[in-house]
Write a structure and sequence with these properties.
Length: 175
């Protein structure tokens, strides 16, 4: 259920073929499988690193990525986060992690293997910031009384339909 499966079904219906869903627990795993002939289309954040193997459509959704900070934090703005000594918990290989990797100059990225893991690490290790997509952070902030989600965004994930480049330019153009 949801936007991604509905879009996949609509594309399959338009082509006159049955849809077969191939779920991946993490976006990075879907991207890794692009060259393995495991899937024909995938709904994933369009990022330059992924675009080497995946051809993307225009975005069908844009999701803000920002930070959550613990109660009493001195970090008040997005710009405050990229400072020496600031540790940012992040879910490894998420679209926003790829952006942070390319753009963070002074803070330290601490990667976890999952969204739940990055939140748990943020809490347990008392990190200065948790990077995430705003919809998820709105859930996480309820679990930490006094925590704050910073205004604005450090990037936005462009959710798009992608197809492995190995499928050919005609497939990408059709999409």
């Amino acid at each position: 259920e949801g936007v991604s499966p509905s879009m996949a079904k609509a594309i399959a219906d338009r082509l006159g073929v049955p849809v077969k869903y191939v779920p991946f627990p993490k976006p990075g795993e879907l991207a890794d499988a692009a060259e393995g002939d495991v899937w024909d289309i995938g709904n994933i954040g369009a990022e330059p690193a992924r675009a080497q193997k995946i051809a993307f459509t225009a975005a069908y959704a844009e999701i803000e990525a920002t930070y959550m900070v613990p109660p009493g934090s001195a970090l008040r703005t997005i710009a405050d986060v990229d400072k020496p000594g600031v540790r940012i918990a992040v879910s490894a290989r998420s679209a926003y992690d790829l952006w942070l990797e390319a753009n963070i100059k002074h803070a330290t990225l601490i990667r976890s293997t999952s969204l739940d893991g990055s939140f748990a690490d943020f809490v347990a290790n008392k990190y200065e910031a948790l990077a995430g997509l705003r919809p998820r952070l709105l859930t996480d902030v309820k679990q930490m009384p006094g925590a704050t989600i910073l205004d604005g965004q450090f990037t936005a994930v462009q959710q798009a339909v992608g197809t492995p480049r190995s499928k050919g330019a005609a497939v990408a153009k059709w999409l």
